[in-house]
Amino acid sequence: MGYTSAVRKCIHIEIRTRFRLIHEKDWTGHTVSIICKRYGVSRKTYYKWNNRYKQKGIDGLSDVSKRPHTIKYKKLTSEILETILDLRLIKRFGCNRIRFRLRRIVGISLSTRTIYKILKRHGLNILKCQARIRKTYKRFAMKHPNDMVQMDILGPFYLSNSSERNYIISCLDDCSRKVASRWSERKRSVDVLNVLEDWIMTNNGGGGSKPKTVMHDNGKQFTSRIFKHFLVHNHIKDKRIPNSYPQLQGKIEAYNKIVKNEFLALEDIPNIDDGKLRYDMFVKAYNEAREHGGINGLTPSEMFLQRLITSTIDKGTKQQSVTHVGNRKCNLSV
After folding, report:
1. Could you please report the per-residue DSSP string of 169-184?
2. Looking at the structure, do residues 57 and 84 belong to the same domain, yes or no?
3. Which of 109, 249, 274, 277 has the most neighbouring CB atoms within 10 Å?
4. How far apart are CA 143 and CA 134, in angstroms?
5. Which CATH number do you get for residue 289?
6. Pseudo-torsion of CA 260, 262, 267, 269, nearest 10°?
């Protein structure tokens, strides 16, 4: 496409100005700094045009295209595309979850924008909905594993071929999101304590350590004498949330939502025994294989181990920095 006469005139003026700029030093003998200040350009610009003039002559003073010579596109193979669509259709993953899974399993790093474009191209992007005004709540998270666990009961829910009530009783670590959970036909205090004991036995953290605090709602299972006696006997603090404030247990409520969407809504469970077996496998996969967006794409088990090692190192550092001489404590840290 040709330029108009006005544009060509401006181009010639620019070229003449650059020609005078790089020859000003030879004509006047002034320093480059003074010349650049006079023309309102930087020293870097001066040497850029000077080098181009030495290489290509007067043609080097024209503007060149800034388009990159080579553009490296990440080739999306049909296998990767099929994986993205399967994760969206079968697992109901969002863009972030798909990105975490591809990075962990396939070893490819795609942006959420790229994944969203693929979903939109296939009509699987996030649907628009009416925005609701939500209250803002102060988020919190414990720094170390077993500082606090959240407990809750999901249910009742029913199998397609049965009218019996079923429940999911869960105990979730506030720091790492790691969970101990059981499928149960009842929701007694004994059933709740069995899950809490499962957590203590499987996440001992070196010697069967117990959680410092248990947070729960006002269900009868958590306010009973047997539950309170267990906490007092094991020196565990009882933290009950106020009525009508489930958002204070947002992490365990989020886990309940995951169970609904990724287990109960997808699994075709023929009977209770088969359901319990499948749910145990689901809990294991959640802890050890499922990436969690709230902990930067780590799995809960990875986060639990990472924070456990950090807290152990911190305790060891504090113990080494203090020594006892007689009955007096001397701090050796500087």
Report:
1. EEEEETTT--EEEEEE
2. no
3. 249
4. 27
5. 3.30.420.10
6. -40
How much is the pTM?
0.59
Residues 281 and 198 in one domain: yes
Q: Flag whether 68 is in a domain.
A: no
φ/ψ of residue 156, rounded to 5: -80, 155
Domain count across the chain: 3
User: Is 317 a member of any domain?
Assistant: no
Do 169 and 266 have their domain in common? yes
Helix 43-56 × helix 5-28 angle, to 10°: 100
Mark whether 158 and 276 lie in a shared domain.
yes
- Amino acid in the structure at residue 292: H
Let me know if residue 226 belongs to a domain. Answer: yes
pLDDT in tens, 72-125: 656 678 888 888 888 888 888 888 888 888 888 888 888 888 888 888 888 887
C-beta of residue 182 within 8 angstroms of C-beta of residue 192: no
On whether the CB atoms of residues 226 and 190 are closer than 8 A, the answer is yes
Q: Which one-letter amino acid corresponds to residue 277?
A: L
Q: What whole-number distance in Å separates Cα of residue 176 and Cα of residue 172?
A: 8
Strand, helix or coil for residue 329? strand
Residue 210, in any domain of the structure:
yes
Quote the domain boundaries for residue 9.
5-61
Q: How many CB atoms lie within 10 A of CB 184?
A: 21
Q: Give every CB contact of residue 217 below 8 A, 6+ residues apart in sequence.
A: 152, 240, 241, 246, 249
pLDDT in tens, 142-160: 888 888 999 999 989 988 8
Tell me 76's DSSP state.
-
